[in-house]
Design a protein that fits this description.
mainly alpha, globular
């Protein structure tokens, strides 16, 4: 069994600075600008001199460590750094690509024809009501456009997947370091409530399990996105032929579990089945003994937890049970029903952004708070959140929704292997209750890395087959 932590590489100063930045933001954000400056300088050197798209993706992923903490509560600084971390680097890369040649390749267009049609449909349908579509343009529409601009032009995006793997290794270690601090929950809450990370304060952000156990939001300050990066982490290991680097597997599973984000955890488990389950199952004496030991340990742990009657843990576990009233999907029930009602009113769509912007005048009853009172307070939301499939159906209509489904299969099942199939299954389940395609530049990184590593693997397999054929001749 090969266990490797750094693949015998020397310490990477750039990645080490990012880890230092993670620790400083959580523990002494006033000094975050110190490592942020050299990180920006190194990033732009690699982008401008080496035309390195990997540094662009990394800068997007760590942007929240820089934008807010660099000059806390300064809107101008936040906007400038948002441009420098997200918009300018990818803009430079695309301008260079199309500046040399505007030629597109028919074979690449055919591979992503449904995604291209979806992007065109969304752009045209966005004109239906710009008041609603413009606010969500950077969240949902722009990532798809950027993905197509890069992929349709370049067969090989020159992403250094090995370095991206190393980046995740460093940053996930940093996420565990800050999480182990006794005051992690308090400090994380301060970063959100005092407006240090985001442009506006987020005092009501859900950062704990039952207001007790802190969820690790990591360097992206979103436990769901951090869990999704754990899925990318294991896929990189798989496609790079490093799935037996168990130190990495333990690291990514540890981080995913302390996010307590159910969707990514389910996806991660499904991917793991696809990667590690044998192609043909043979029950040997050793295999049966191993399964027996695991079963006994699992049963013993379950009995202990039930006996311990840990109310918080039991309520969290119940959210995974599809038959429980507290399951994750039922928690979005009001949003799903509201979206479906809007779809029935207009089957061909209400317009992009209609349900996901507050300005549309929605008032959605989601439950009660202060239930101990004789007359509990009603809780209302003013936009649909965390119910992407239903919301997408209502906004895009039946045509746009079908295009979205075809595009999703086209991107995430391009490799047609067991791992891709199980990922796609988990991803679609996740979309019932999470707005992954509305995560802006994080979604752009997510799909370009996922699609890119899969295509690189197909090219390696094709090259291998050609080599074997040439040797035969």
């Amino acid at each position: 069994m090969k266990i490797s932590v750094l693949d015998k590489r020397k310490i990477d100063v750039y990645l080490l600075l990012i880890v230092v930045l993670i620790i400083l933001v959580f523990n002494a954000y006033k000094y975050a600008f110190i490592p942020a400056i050299p990180i920006l300088i190194i990033s732009y050197y690699r982008i401008l001199i080496k035309n390195d798209i990997t540094s662009i993706l990394i800068l997007m992923l760590i942007s929240r460590l820089i934008m807010g903490p660099f000059l806390p509560r300064n809107s101008f600084s936040f906007n400038v750094l948002n441009l420098l971390c997200n918009y300018v680097p990818i803009g430079i890369f695309i301008l260079r690509m199309y500046g040399n040649s505007t030629k597109l390749y028919v074979d690449r267009i055919l591979k992503l024809k449904w995604t291209l049609l979806l992007a065109i449909y969304i752009l045209v349908f966005s004109l239906y009501n710009l008041k609603y579509s413009l606010p969500i343009f950077p969240q949902e529409t722009l990532p798809l456009i950027l993905f197509l601009l890069v992929v349709l032009k370049k067969k090989d995006q020159n992403i250094d997947f090995d370095y991206l793997l190393l980046f995740l290794r460093y940053t996930f270690v940093g996420c565990i370091i800050v999480y182990l601090h006794p005051d992690f929950g308090v400090r994380m809450s301060e970063l959100f409530s005092e407006g240090i990370i985001f442009k506006e304060a987020s005092p009501d952000a859900s950062l704990f399990i039952k207001r007790t156990i802190p969820r690790n939001t990591g360097f992206v300050f979103d436990f769901r996105i951090l869990g999704q990066l754990a899925c990318i982490y294991i896929l990189l290991l798989y496609y790079l032929g490093k799935k037996h680097q168990y130190a990495d597997v333990i690291l990514l599973f540890t981080v995913a579990l302390i996010t307590f984000s159910r969707g990514p955890i389910v996806i991660l488990l499904l991917i793991s089945i696809g990667i590690y389950a044998p192609r043909a199952i043979r029950l040997t004496k050793k295999g049966l003994a191993f399964l027996g030991i695991i079963s006994i340990l699992g049963l013993s742990s379950a009995l202990y937890l039930v006996k311990a009657d840990n109310e918080i843990f039991n309520k969290y576990i119940a959210t995974y049970n599809p038959y429980s009233k507290e399951n994750a999907i039922s928690q979005r029930g009001m949003f799903i029903q509201y979206s479906l009602d809007k779809f029935y009113e207009k089957p061909f769509g209400n317009g992009i952004g209609y349900l996901s912007t507050k300005s549309a005048g929605h008032r959605i009853f989601v439950g009660y708070k202060n239930r101990h009172r004789e007359v509990p307070d009603k809780v209302y939301y003013y936009k649909v959140a965390d119910a992407f499939l239903a919301m997408s159906l209502a906004e895009k209509g039946i045509i746009g929704f079908v295009l979205f489904l075809l595009s999703t299969v086209e991107i995430f099942f391009a490799n047609r292997n067991r791992v891709s199939l199980l990922f796609l299954l988990g991803f679609m389940i996740n979309l019932i209750g999470t707005d992954i395609p509305k995560q802006g530049f994080y979604y752009f990184v997510f799909i370009i890395v996922y699609y890119g590593i899969g295509q690189a693997q197909k090219e390696r397999e094709r090259a291998g087959l050609l080599k074997v054929e040439a040797e035969r001749l």
